Amino acid sequence: MTNDMTSGRPARLILLFSLPLLAGNLFQQFYNMADTIIVGRTVGVNALAAVGATGSINFLILGFVMGVTSGFAVVTAQRFGAGDEAGVRRSVATSIILSIAVTAVVTLISVLGTMPLLRLMNTPEDIIDDAYSYIVVIFLGIAASVLFNLFSCILRSLGDSRTPLIFLIIACLLNIGLDFACILIFKMGVAGAAWATIAAQLIAGLLCMGYSFKRFPILRLHKEDFKFDWAFAWHHLRIGLPMAFQFSITAVGTMVLQAALNNLGSASVAAFTAASKIDQLASQPLQSLGTAMATYAAQNYGAGQVARIRKGVRSCCLISTIASLVGGGLVILAGPLLIRLFVGDAEQLVYDRAQEYLIVLAIFYTVLGLLFVFRNTLQGVGSSSITLFAGVSELLMRSFAAIFLAQWMGYLGICLASPIAWIGAMVPLSISYFLVIRKLPAQFAPRSEA
């Protein structure tokens, strides 16, 4: 049930691996959209804006834990690519121990810091209470998110992208059903959408963990696997923490942008929220290809096959460019219809601003696709510190747009912030990739001689 990506045609392997990832990401976006659509159409536009106002804070915290678990799985993939089954089990056990510690610390900090962060971001007074009610529940359930993401990443590190899809579909269906129950039946408001999300993730995470241990012999851990080795743990943290901070640094830039957006009023926040959900959906093919490259690069790095990494990157860049052009065209054509799902027919200003945001982003999807390819490849070969630097570049560019362009150009400046940030991150990532890939053969030479 595992998938060795160190042999076979790279383009075919990447495509086949990315398809279940794409399906899973789409389902995840669908159930995130279900939260937003149900809130916007039943509770009201202000409630929609409240959920949207928490997006950057949500990404700041959950992006951190997603980054750190993805980083841990890179080590697992490298061990799998090297044919080290004992190393795979040790990596999984170490990842579990480290994830428990990270969950405890992050949950405490995030719950205590929720309201101060909302105040710091100038969240409008008419939505701040609903925003707090929603996001504090999400933070209380961080453990559920870590559980599901950790075991999904572990399975993907072994080349299995199908099994996480199954459990993500289960989570999607559960979340939609619980949304209706919590919001429409139990009248829990925006907090009900958050409780539905946490419950769905917890159930899916438990199922994914149980299935992993039962059906994958290589993952059946023994007592000796949990023997803690600081050097081995640091190897995981050395890759996981830069990836986590890279996500969080990107989120800080989004928070700066959100603060500038909040100053433009609830209509702009609601428009940005609706358009962002559509954008997240449209960009999933690009993100899925990037995630596939991380596993592909990690396994081939473990096997010492540098030439295959180069070939895979070239193939993925071509596929990503085609996907970005198709996706951008669809967003421009179908965006108006999708926006109506969120705001109905009565909010013309919200509709117009959401459409403006989507058109600007769609034009730059090619840059975003290449960013995902280079970033995930570097993470797969263990150069996650470089991606952290690129995250800082992205932060600076997005902050520049939020502080200056938003003042000069108003809402259009907000729309241009993400494309400018993508360019600011893609340039150092592409340069770093070519520098790193040239040095890898020399790195593997001593291993070949041995």
Describe the structure.
There is one protein chain. The chain is mostly helical and 450 residues long. The chain is 86% helix and 0% strand. The longest helix is centred in the last third of the chain and has 39 residues, at 411-449.
Q: Can you summarize this structure?
A:
By secondary structure, this protein is mainly α. The protein has helices at residues 10-43, 45-53, 55-81, 85-120, 128-140, 142-157, 162-185, 190-215, 230-262, 266-282, 284-302, 306-343, 348-363, 365-380, 384-409, 411-449.
- Globally, the shape reads globular
Overall average pLDDT: 87
What about the largest sheet? none
Computed structural class: mainly alpha
List segments where confidence is low: pLDDT < 50 over at least 5 consecutive residues: none
Keywords summarizing the entry:
450 residues, 16 helices, mainly alpha, 0% strand, globular
Task: Set out the fold topology.
Elements: H1 10-43, H2 45-53, H3 55-81, H4 85-120, H5 128-140, H6 142-157, H7 162-185, H8 190-215, H9 230-262, H10 266-282, H11 284-302, H12 306-343, H13 348-363, H14 365-380, H15 384-409, H16 411-449
Helix pairs in contact: 1-2, 1-7, 1-8, 1-10, 1-11, 1-12, 2-5, 2-10, 3-4, 3-6, 3-9, 3-11, 4-5, 4-6, 4-9, 5-8, 6-8, 7-8, 9-15, 10-12, 10-13, 11-12, 11-14, 12-13, 12-14, 13-16, 14-15, 14-16, 15-16
